DNA sequence: AGCGTGTGTGCAATCGATTTCTCATCAGGA
DNA sequence: TCCTGATGAGAAATCGATTGCACACACGCT
């Protein structure tokens, strides 16, 4: 592998000049520049980013740490980040923490030791120490999707409570009174906010919030399935279910299908997050849609701004959610 | 940010000793080691990976360059890679080339300049120059899912031709004679192999391979939709369709649904690749299943081996596919 | 006592780029 | 002709870690 010195020798100039030509910040005699670019082409030289990063103490990589790579919510969001990143001159690398705090911790450590230029993270726990580590080391950070108590970082969220309220109110308007909720992990802000929205809608309609109709699961398909089973087996069966994320909605549906219960006539269902190919699922699914791509885009914009102006107050962006009524909730 | 020299001063030893304690390759007086670890803890020191990478000229990052992050096939594969990577002491970063050769080229360049310890790539074109660039620079590479002509690299594939043959034969056995194929891009080995399997099955059964029944699309949902439209509008409508990947299968289904055609009674359909939540789609989809997780796992194993023993002949692993018969193909 | 051996530490070179500082060169004005 | 200022190129320091080499010290043997 050729180094900058090889190029310099080949072009009959100093390494400093090669560097200047490559970076283009300073003026160089066109004749020399020409010789340098020729030498670069001839030797197939590509600059060693590691050495450059060491000297300039910065990289052009953004790390995006997501909690579940298999959840379409995140993949769509990543597209939003990528589009902004590439136009800002950054490359995006994705890390999958798999809802596992230990893996998350490792990836944060890696982002720090690898001197990443920025980090977008959807925390898989409310364990704030790791994220604060990033903040302390002046690494630009944007927290996404999930709110962290006690962390003063730029954040992009969606209006979870409102979305859940819309979903629940819709189910009430359809004439349901026994409405269950399959909630997410208690320690995730998205989960608690959605649960709050559900409870708020019930209260608003003069209905009681019944703990027997609430199940806490893990935002995974399996968890949704088990929660639905539990709802059907224990206590009076609900007329309708609000599931607090996409994968759990799928799990709940699978449970209902497997038991031969008809949706929505036996049990109506509304999910949170959109689901790819929702049109092909029968019945089609009523869901609370989030602007996932936009979430990513805004997060990336915040990160880019934070990179150029590290100081300044943390911003908190909340994007709207909306109810997409389809077949699974209308009788 | 504390450096190794800060730690050394704090512990009253030389930087060399700190390094030796941190890496643990060489023996150090336990008393000194104790002082060093104490100093590390006290200063919150974390070693600068960039400097280390420069000196040792290697990193502990594997880049996985996939052609479509939104395709569940790849996300499942990534899990397989991650599991092996973490037990081999590597971290995985994901790059999304988005079926775009230019982006792919950029990510390969980034992998090279960032001195990645290894690369797993599912090429989005048959433009072999970039991949050869990796090989020449002795960066361990494993090509995955798609075969590249003229590239002598470790490769993990599935038996595409056999899978397509199974799918098509199954449709023939169900009594269909006019069987269409929605094929992928001509330049991708997966696409051509699947088309070959389709043609082979037809020939074997004494049926003609009719170009009017073949459409080339782009492995995307939209492409599948358009191809299906074209098949229905031009020429005699097919009795059955074999779609060469998961997203195009979805697109084709959506087209059929939208036109009010019943599956499988009007048109039977078999897809390639599994589809998440296939159980919830009505009718349930017959597909050719691939061992996606295993593909990732094997690729990662090859990469790990190549890292430790750079020389040696390139290996080519072909994993089996199998037909999962469900509702969309059986009358 | 003297020498050889082994153990462990520190010094300093090194990885490959960037960047400050210094200096040579040249143009233009007095 | 000489001086000044501008311009641009090269020499060398630097980023932070690793590691070959030399050396100091302790110990054991003759």
Automatic annotation (TrEMBL), chains A, B:
<dbReference type="Pfam" id="PF00356">
    <property type="entry name" value="LacI"/>
</dbReference>
<keyword id="KW-0678">Repressor</keyword>
<dbReference type="InterPro" id="IPR028082">
    <property type="entry name" value="Peripla_BP_I"/>
</dbReference>
<keyword id="KW-0805">Transcription regulation</keyword>
<dbReference type="Pfam" id="PF13377">
    <property type="entry name" value="Peripla_BP_3"/>
</dbReference>
<keyword id="KW-0238">DNA-binding</keyword>
<dbReference type="GO" id="GO:0003700">
    <property type="term" value="F:DNA-binding transcription factor activity"/>
</dbReference>
<dbReference type="InterPro" id="IPR010982">
    <property type="entry name" value="Lambda_DNA-bd_dom_sf"/>
</dbReference>
<dbReference type="GO" id="GO:0000976">
    <property type="term" value="F:transcription cis-regulatory region binding"/>
</dbReference>
<keyword id="KW-0804">Transcription</keyword>
<feature type="domain" description="HTH lacI-type">
    <location>
        <begin position="2"/>
        <end position="56"/>
    </location>
</feature>
<dbReference type="InterPro" id="IPR000843">
    <property type="entry name" value="HTH_LacI"/>
</dbReference>
<protein>
    <submittedName>
        <fullName>LacI family transcriptional regulator</fullName>
    </submittedName>
</protein>
<dbReference type="InterPro" id="IPR046335">
    <property type="entry name" value="LacI/GalR-like_sensor"/>
</dbReference>
């Amino acid at each position: 592998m050729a180094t900058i010195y090889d190029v310099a020798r080949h072009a009959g100039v100093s390494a400093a000049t090669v560097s200047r030509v490559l970076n283009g910040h300073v003026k160089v005699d066109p004749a020399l520049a020409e010789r340098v670019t020729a030498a670069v082409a001839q030797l197939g030289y590509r600059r060693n980013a590691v050495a450059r990063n060491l000297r300039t103490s910065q990289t052009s990589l953004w790390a995006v740490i997501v909690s579940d790579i298999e959840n379409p919510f995140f993949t769509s969001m990543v597209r939003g980040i990528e589009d902004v990143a590439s136009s800002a001159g950054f490359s995006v690398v994705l890390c999958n923490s798999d809802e596992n705090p230990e893996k998350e911790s490792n990836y944060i450590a890696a982002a720090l030791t690898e001197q990443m230029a920025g980090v977008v993270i959807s925390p898989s726990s409310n364990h704030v120490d790791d994220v604060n580590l990033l903040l302390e080391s002046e690494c630009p950070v944007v927290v996404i999707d999930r709110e962290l108590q006690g962390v003063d970082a730029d954040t992009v969220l969606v209006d979870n409570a409102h979305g859940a309220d819309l979903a629940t109110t819709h189910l009430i308007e359809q004439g349901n009174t026994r409405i269950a909720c399959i909630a997410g992990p208690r320690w995730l802000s998205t989960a608690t906010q959605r649960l709050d929205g559900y409870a708020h809608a019930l209260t608003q309609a003069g209905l009681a919030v019944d703990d027997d109709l609430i199940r806490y699961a893990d935002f995974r398909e399996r968890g949704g399935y088990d929660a639905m089973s539990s709802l059907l087996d224990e206590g009076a069966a609900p007329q309708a279910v609000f599931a607090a994320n996409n994968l759990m909605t799928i799990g709940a549906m699978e449970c209902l299908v497997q038991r031969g219960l008809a949706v929505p006539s036996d049990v109506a269902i509304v999910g949170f997050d959109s689901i790819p190919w929702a049109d092909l699922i029968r019945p089609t699914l009523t869901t609370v849609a989030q602007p996932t791509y936009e979430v990513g885009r805004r997060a990336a914009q915040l990160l880019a701004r934070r990179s150029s102006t590290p100081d300044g107050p943390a911003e908190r962006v909340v994007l709207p959610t909306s109810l997409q009524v389809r077949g699974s909730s209308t009788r």
